[in-house]
Amino acid sequence: MINEHSKILLEVRGLRASVNGTEVLKGVDLTVRYGEVHAIMGPNGSGKSTFSKVLAGHKAYEITGGSVLFEGKDLFALEPEERARAGVFLAFQYPIEIPGVGNGQFLRLAYNTLQTQRGNEELDPLEFDDFVREKMKLLEMNPDFLDRSVNEGFSGGEKKRNEILQMAILEPRLAILDETDSGLDIDALRIVAQGVNHLTSKDNATIMVTHYQRLLNYIVPNFVHVMEAGRIIKSGGKELALELESRGYDWIQPDLDVSSQSKATKRIAA
Amino acid sequence: MSVAVTHQNQPANGYLATLLAGRLSAPSPTKGQCIAPPVLTALQVAAAERVSALNVPSTRDEEWRFTDISLLTKLSFQPVTAESTLQLVDIARFTIAEAGARLVFVDGVYAPHLSHTEQAEGVTVANLAHTLEKSAAHTDAHIATYLGQLAEYKNNVFAALNTACMSDAALILLARDTAVRQPIHLLFIASKQGGVSYPRCLIRAEAGSKATVVEDYVSLQDEAYFTNSVSEVSLADNAHVHHIRVQREGMNAFHIANCAVTLAHGSHYQSVSVAMGARISRYNLNVLQAAEGGECTVDGLALIAERQLADTHTCIDHAKPHGMSRQLHKCIIGGSAHAVFNGKIMVRPGAQRADSQQTNRNLLLTSRAQVDTKPQLEIFADDVKCTHGATVSQLDGEEIFYLQSRGLTDVVARNLLTYAFGAEILERIPVASLKHQLEQTVLEQAGLKQSGLEQMK
Q: Any CB–CB contact under 8 A between A154 and chain B?
């Protein structure tokens, strides 16, 4: 769904961030347009997860430089919940368990909070129940999950499905999937990917952060970026992921030109 | 009552003596005030002697190390003797819709016009004084077998004081194989400033019987008063008792309570204790697995703020083999409040195959909040499965971030997590309307109502 003329959703320029005084992101550049699916790959510790958390507004990270525009507005001027309301969604690598809060109640609370912000009607429990059950079919989730506490006692795969269920309910403009494939068996991977594919459209965009290529067999990205030591050092099309899978990360020569992504865009579009 | 004769005023123990004297000089509140059978009189005399011999505990006593009750001794309290003029409408907000029988005591005095007793086949739910007045001798003897026999008072000054001073009690007697479907509500209301009351409960569940009992302490005023209660619960073979205890006293109250439970073969005791009121509260719960195969689940929640102190001491005594116990005790501590938990698990010699799990989780909401927790395992058998653990934490930054990333504000996220922390215990209350009432209280305390998020429940 690449369209060079579609509008820019997210524009990251020279983003630097540190945690506990250690710089983790050292100048990240990334442009995401509506309708695009991006994959960010890279070895452990390269800064991939940090990048997703920084976009979602995690307090542990200090922004030390650069800028991020989301729909043309300064993303860092927004609190995490304001980003969520504006349409940023992070599917967590390790979804949090919240014993004592029913999953169905939590989903409804989150949904209604966003609906109110967006000037829409809230759904009462019965209406929401119908709504959420429909979404759950997409992820082949048992309705029993609504009655359990949020993520409590869920298997790794169930937690990830629950994340994508939230994505389906909250309908973000920008979905950031942080290692969504980790811990999934092949069936769960297929179901989760199906769910994500169903949700992508020309009106939103997805950033997948992943260590492995296998997710990309199911959710085919328009762009693959390689992150290392806090920077995106190479960008390309989906074939780059296959090359990374077979050759590892060591062979990569950083693109000297920071605008490698735009070159890749032209190449793929052509 | 002959107790006065044996009572000797000891200067070293002036405070207790005053309380004891206050009780004994009080005129009979009801015509059934005097507990008639000689065996009970003897009990009260013995208890009064122990009160005279014991001292008010201080923080120098190991069992009271973290709980300073000197504030209590600086105040004087008088027993209330007048019958209550409260009407049902005054207590409506405390009633439980599902409850069948309800016994109401106002400032320690039984209030028949607010109560609904039950004398059905195999079930007695009534006040002790009235029961003794009209019952046959064998019932008296039956009661005397349990009353004062489970709750140890020889070395427990507050249990002794209660035993010496009790003028009545809530009585629940379940005959063999009787199941009471509706919860039984024991409601103790404090209405008078400066009052002292000695609530007493006796539950005897014969073999195979089953009931749910709600023991509930509430207040209609916010000044200081003193509740000193004792409950005794005796389960015969295969009996099931679900015991819900709610301490929602006034914020300047003193609440000191002892509860003793004895489990016979294969019996099952489940309790949920919630402490959210009182300036200073102390709850001692002792569960004795006196025969093989006893099972108990002992859960608790303390939800305190400001300058409150809530102390829970539990002891689960696996005296016989094949016993099972589960315990989850949680504390939510705000303001400059102070929670104390001391959870002892005893496995006696020969109590093989004991299976015990104890968990204590504490949530500190402010930097001034404080908790002292002391899990204690004493195991004298070699084939047992015992685990225990205690955690002290603040709200988790990752959890808050997770909720924020779903659109909830920082404040709502914190409140929701606080609520959820407590809800895990409240969920275990099998009486829906009471659970709902308490959840609302927690929501209010957590500020979630103002956030417009009462839809959570």
A: no
pLDDT given for residue B440 in this prediction? 84
For an interface test with A, which of B399, B405, B412, B416 has the most A Cβ atoms less than 10 Å from its Cβ? Answer: B405
Q: Which domain holds residue A133?
A: 8-269
> Is residue A3 in some structural domain?
no
Query: A222 near A38, Cβ under 8 Å?
Result: yes
Closest CB from B397, B403, B427 relative to A59: B397
B72 and B18 Cβ atoms separated by less than 8 Å: no
The domain that holds A46 is classified in CATH as 3.40.50.300
The nearest alpha carbon in chain B to A124 belongs to B455
Shortest Cα–Cα distance, B90 to chain A (Å): 33
Distance CA A213, CA A210 (A): 7
User: How far does the CA of residue A136 sit from the closest CA of chain B (Å)?
Assistant: 18
ipTM above 0.90, yes or no: yes
What pLDDT, in 10s, does the model give residues B197-254?
999 999 999 999 999 999 999 999 999 999 999 999 999 999 999 999 999 999 999 9
Contacts of B417 in chain A (CB under 8 A): 98
For B429-448, write each residue's pLDDT tens digit.
Answer: 999 999 999 988 887 766 55
Q: Which of A2-6, B9-13, B17-21 has the highest mean pLDDT?
A: B17-21
DSSP 8-state code for residue A124: P
**Chain A positions in Cβ-Cβ contact with residue B455 (cut-off 8 Å):** 105, 108-109, 112, 125
pLDDT for A246 equals: 83
Which residues contact residue B343 at a Cβ distance below 8 angstroms, ignoring those fewer than 6 apart? B312, B313, B314, B315, B316, B327, B329, B358, B360, B374, B375, B376, B388
Q: What is the pLDDT of residues B250-290, one digit of tens each?
A: 999 999 999 999 999 999 999 999 999 999 999 999 999 99
CA dist., res. A152 & res. B431, Å (int): 24
Q: Do B397 and A112 touch (CB under 8 A)?
A: no
Assess A128–B contact: CB distance below 8 Å, yes or no: no
Q: Which of B409, B416, B457 sits opposite A81 (nearest CB)?
A: B409
Rounded Cα distance between B353 and A190, Å, is 46
Overall number of domains in chain A: 1
